[in-house]
Amino acid sequence: MGGTIASVWALVLLCILRAKKKNPTLVKDIRDKTLKSSRKENCLSEIAVTPDVIIVGAGVAGSALAYALGKDGRQVHVIERDLNEPDRIVGELLQPGGYLKLIELGLDDCVEEIDAEQVFGYAIYKDGKSTKLSYPLQSFESNIAGRSFHNGRFIQRMREKAVTLPNVRLEQGTVTSLLEEKGTVKGVLYKTRTGQELTANAPLTIVCDGCFSNLRRKLCKPKVDIPSHFVALVLENCNLPYENHGHVVLADPSPILFYRISSTEIRCLVDVPGQKVPSISNGEMAHHLKTVIPSELYPAFISATEKGNIRTMPNRSMPASPYPTPGALLLGDAFNMRHPLTGGGMTVALSDIVLLRNLLRPLNSLKDASALCKYLESFYTLRKPMASTINTLAGALYKVFSASTNRARNEMRQACFDYLSLGGVFSNGPISLLSGLNPRPLSLVLHFFAVAIFGVGRLIIPFPSPKSIWTSARLITAASGIIFPIVKAEGIRQMFFPLTMASYYRAPPSY
């Protein structure tokens, strides 16, 4: 009897030890849930039903879209190149407007348990002076604010939540091409983790494979511009002058950003204009950074540079210029990018996802690719208020905030700082645009030229001189040269007169 009891206890102990060894990380947990989600009820190794939608990429856009469509009952197959936690140096700040979209999607709990920080506005520094700009959140509930966090932790939380839905399958694989038949995309060709080449078919394929997308060329005009690079460090165990605020230092030659990504870490992003960045290996980069950092954060900054963990990445900008293609759609950074100075990328992506989900909701079937393509032309028009406001502001602010040898441009830079320092409507208006709470392109253009006129006033009041009048004229010209090319790229008619677009009135196809 004693031997039997001992054997039973030994078996129990063995099971416990094995369970501990198999305690999965978040990545393994996602993979396990991915396998389970594809074996529901019938214990099959593949989804028994052909998916309604294939999503290429499971970053912020792909994961959020998978959850949104899966929650609406769509069969979704997501193919992601790498299910390990991403390690990126952008996509770490979500504006309040983006957080509101996260709530609409039912994903707001994904910023919990990742040591995320609330963000209530910005502080801007120039020549030793500073001004604080707070988000206009008075009419919202107390939990509404921006959020800053580790991008990879946020993405893993969304992936984990997406695969809790039985009709969402998340698979690791590399999509190599779109499958086309007579001009209609029918699915994708991809390689699994083991190198096996497979095809996946669905009525609608949505490409969300990020800024390095290798599929976008067939779906849009990929006019990618790289105006600068970000050099990134993490400062540890130090405080920002204005906690729970992003900090923008108008340094020479271009801005430096600081914001918390956890309770103990501050992200530092130094913008380096042009295509070439100083060398990291020979110490040139560390020397460059030491010359532009503000004194308040200098000790923590020196400590970070001495550790040598300096990373760089190009800042890409690409206006949305889609080729409407039956059976396929672009979304996220694969579709539209702007300079990351204003942290608006995730807000645009989440806004697009809410819009696309709402457009697809009335449709029982997605199988008529031509009719669906015609209907989804409305997506490109309806997204413009939010997308074009944030895109234009990002491009314009980057150019205004960068130092220049042109005196008129530098006057514009000083005028912008002084204008925002006035407070009231002069700061609330621009910060509400930046936050995604007031997506109105016309309001943006009015504030932009109000800054220019304010700059002219600084130059000619109280006593204008020929030199100040000439500089004023050049300032207005410089302001026009900044804003109008960006507006033109966004599409003047779609941006300011969307009601004149036929696509604005597209009704859901009836079948």
Secondary-structure blueprint:
Blueprint: H1 2-21, H2 26-37, E1 53-56, H3 60-71, E2 76-80, E3 93-94, H4 96-105, E4 117-119, E5 121-126, E6 129-134, E7 146-148, H5 151-162, E8 168-181, E9 184-192, E10 197-201, E11 204-207, E12 225-236, E13 246-249, E14 256-260, E15 265-273, H6 284-290, H7 298-307, E16 311-317, E17 328-330, H8 345-360, H9 369-375, H10 377-382, H11 384-401, H12 407-421, H13 425-434, H14 441-460, H15 466-490, H16 492-496
Parallel strand pairs: 1-2, 1-11, 2-8, 5-13, 11-17
Antiparallel strand pairs: 3-7, 4-7, 5-6, 8-9, 9-10, 12-15, 12-16, 13-14, 14-15
Helix pairs in contact: 3-5, 3-8, 4-8, 11-15, 12-14, 12-15, 14-15
Main location: membrane
Keywords: FAD, Flavoprotein, Membrane, Oxidoreductase, Signal, Transmembrane, Transmembrane helix
GO cellular component, one term: membrane
